[in-house]
């Protein structure tokens, strides 16, 4: 038996047979031919992956947010300043436009003002705007210590930040803030949170507040709370839904 090793490449080249071929006349007189029959046995090995000829280099984690954070903190190359209640916040137009379609329109769109060196932001606290910039540059929220020391104050800032995220069409930030508020509903702040949610059409937060109030079994305490009059005046539909759910729970 004659054994011949052959390697075929599946790349750009197309291989047919083997360079060591036997002529027909030689085959006819060879011992490989029996009764005009030739038996060929093939052993094929298929390699699905190319052999590794070099050591793998570990890939470090992405550090783009670290660079953006430093860019913001050091104010390097800032080309716009926002004034919020007398406090100045330098920033970079291209970063803001990249993160918010509203900022993009205000800074680069047809409605932009000729002199965009300083932009005055109304109806927002400086701490909230700073938290907004923090998220724009780092894709994360500041720590509770950076916002406020106490939980109630933190939730209040998150509520304002939710409104700011809605104002600047930052969907990811909206979802994060709404999720935080849904997880931190309590008797003390549930009514004011419901007013906020209903006025700005945050449906998940509205439903969470209504479910929380209806499940308390202490509706009288809610009626006596500071924010109930505001809820009754500004959010009649939410109040109606609240009473419907509370009634169903009492009937069970």
Automatic annotation (TrEMBL):
Gene3D superfamilies: 1.25.40.420, Potassium Channel Kv1.1, Chain A. It holds the Pfam family BACK_BPM_SPOP. SUPFAM superfamilies: POZ domain. InterPro entries: BACK_BPM_SPOP, BPM1-6, BTB/POZ_dom, MATH/TRAF_dom, SKP1/BTB/POZ_sf. It comes from the Eukaryota. GO terms for biological process: protein ubiquitination. Residues 78-145 form the BTB domain. This is BTB domain-containing protein. The lineage of its organism: Eukaryota, Viridiplantae, Streptophyta, Embryophyta, Tracheophyta.
